[in-house]
Amino acid sequence: MAVTLMKGNEAIGEAAIIAGCRHYFGYPITPQNELPAYMSMRLPKVGGTFLQAESEVAAINMVLGASAAGARVMTSSSSPGVSLKMEGISYLSGAELPAVVVNMMRGGPGLGNIAGAQGDYFQAVKGGGHGDYHCIVLAPNGVQELADLTVKAFDLADQYRIVVIILGDGFIGQMSEPITLPAPSGRVFDKSAWMLSGATGRDPHVIASMRLAPDDALAHLNARLQDKYRVIEKAECMWEKSQADDAEFLLVGFGLSARICRSSVSALRKAGVRAGLFRPITLWPFPSGELARAAAGKKKILVVEMNAGQMVEDVRLSVLSSVPVDFLGTLGGVTPSVDEIVERVRSYAR
Amino acid sequence: MPVETLQEKLVYGRPQVLADVPNHYCPGCGHGIIHKLLAQCIDELGIQQTTILVAPVGCSVLAYNYIKVDGCEAAHGRAPAVATGIKRVHPEATVIAYQGDGDLLAIGTAETIHAANRGEKITVIFVNNAIYGMTGGQMAPTTLQAQKTKTSPYGRNPADVGYPIRACELINTLDAPVFIERCAVSSVKGILKTKRAIMKGLRNQVEKKGYSFIEILSMCPTGWGMEPREAAAWVDSDMTPVFPLGNLRDR
Question: Using the beta-carbon criterion (under 8 Å), do B70 and A199 form an inter-chain contact?
């Protein structure tokens, strides 16, 4: 396969088209504007629909309509815009509709700034919208993985009838790297049992999250959702381990932080400190079991995030008190440096 | 004439797509009439198998239980956005957004205006009863001046909360819509006119013409604290001066 130089945001767009996505609805916000621009250029050429919505709220509800109609559909935004999409994400989850939502995170809270950040972990992983639901959350750490995981995201969404969030950040979205475009997965999902297409030769279908009667109807829906989430937790955890087996100190990070951790591991190894990396690729489901196994016997875990400490809570829940967990975070769109990570780990060794 | 030679001829019956189930609407509510008209039009156009109905949040939140076509829930105010998504996937389908006044003109104003402005090839049926019925009778964007509701207990005061919004006139400022009409289901004559407007709005989709908007003034006896007959009279006496009936556009 040919190697192409692509920007992260554009790689998502091309990968989505490879995955069969022909409908995109979005609203401009920095730092993900290359993606809607790319879709507006490419989708009409492949018989698809690009629509710039009047708001993020409208965009996610257009996604809901298109998904209910059986299409592979995507929207993208950055932190403040994703907050607006939370209403629709909750409705999509309740109605068990597949969709792919990209969040190229920027500094928050509020309008924040336009630098890359990781402050939306809680929002993506712990809920964000109302009600008991989960989205599958994928955290790519480079342009190749952005493209590969985009193709996978559409399959996961269709397989489980769930919202899949691709949680990147402004830096990942903006960086250009040589990549090999992924191939289509070839998987086919039959939506004929539930999708809306007009009740030709069948009883009408209804797509709704509301359950009023009987009294326990909503409890049953929720129980089914929870059963589905347990299956996903078992089947779909993804992670990467690097130089972890013989390590005394384990660095844990996702996305861009994990890249910086990887460089830090190399620097530490050169300095004679046995450090390793554990990188969750799915943030929900969180690879707790695998992390606990990787962490067994380590002297210390250092969690590095571009926030005030969000994933670190899941790391602590995974290892409980078996290994001490330290945290290094950068705030407001600042990236951690290799030097400060190396210095922190060397302080453990001293 | 001997009785046995009489021929039976059915001149009126329940529309096929109107489900034969008890509905939850209050006595004297206009939704039942409007559902029946919509069902009649779907039957008469023969589009049962190609129609997709988007239900709002409001009293008609369960509309898909009463009209037997493919149905989709929408979050409050988002029906035009959901309908847009559906229509863009199935351009051959007849997609209807059925909405109330709070849904269409308060929380969903942006979706309303922009779907109209894009000329989405959908039909919007806007039931204006000047009140939030489902939540217990709060002030709506179309509540009349001095009208008392749960959240305007001293009467709507324009100096404080503005005047009722006229949806048809607002949409009539946009270039794309092909059909805009305001009707009322407060009289037999009005019901017949409403049916013609709905029919036109649906036919515009079948003929791939464009966006149609039908506003229907309707009764909410429970929310207004009136007897059904009184409520119908109030539509004619008090609502129509503020919301004049008639066709604003038919291309």
Answer: yes
